[in-house]
Amino acid sequence: MASLFKKKTVDDIIKEQSKELRGTQRQITRDRAALEKQEKQMEAEIKKMAKSGNREACKILAKQLVQLRKQKNRTYAVSSKVTSMSTQTKVMNSQMKMAGAMSTTAKTMQAVNKKMDPQKTLKTMQDFQKENMKMGMTEDMINDTLDEIFDESGDEEESQDIVNQVLDEIGIEISGKMVRAPAAGKSVPGAASSKQDTISDDEIERQLRALGVD
């Protein structure tokens, strides 16, 4: 019983109208089919009267055929009008829904604007930027302190010992300044004229650069 007294919504009304328009369109199509069938029968009857020589009957049937064809053409006009009405109804429904959505969105935006304080929002963003900069500066200070802790003089001396050890292995001595050291074997005077191999200055400098020693 409650459904009988329920107020119809706009969607319910549009659905009912669309249903009625579809029914009207189907009825127009059936009427046109009946008129086309009657038209063919009348054309056959006119041909029959013409063969029998009954000219008066042919004239009467011809006038009726003209009226019948006019009526059939009118069904096309009515069908087009019904289709236009159905389309217009759908467009109006879409526009109403769009208007409703815009109204809801406007109300939501209005509520958000009331709760949002532009000055407070700006201050929050500025505070965030300031604290972010502080965090970056603190991180840089921590990194610098760690670098100072781990970069001690003992480490540099240990690195130099490793470099000296490597230089000894390849036959290079460092005693205040770089001197040419012989390769494996005893030092022989006049080595420039002998076949004993020595390490050139260019080779020494290349090896030092490879070890990171300037």
From TrEMBL:
A Pfam family matched in the record: Snf7
Sections of the chain in a coiled coil: 21-55
Region spans: Disordered: 182-203
Keywords, in A-Z order: Coiled coil
Keyword set includes NADP: no
Entry-linked Gene3D superfamilies: 6.10.140.1230
Gene Ontology biological process terms in this record: vacuolar transport
Family: Belongs to the SNF7 family.
Name listed for the protein in its UniProt record: Charged multivesicular body protein 2Ba
Species assigned in the record: Parambassis ranga (Indian glassy fish)
Top-level taxonomy: Eukaryota, Metazoa, Chordata, Craniata, Vertebrata
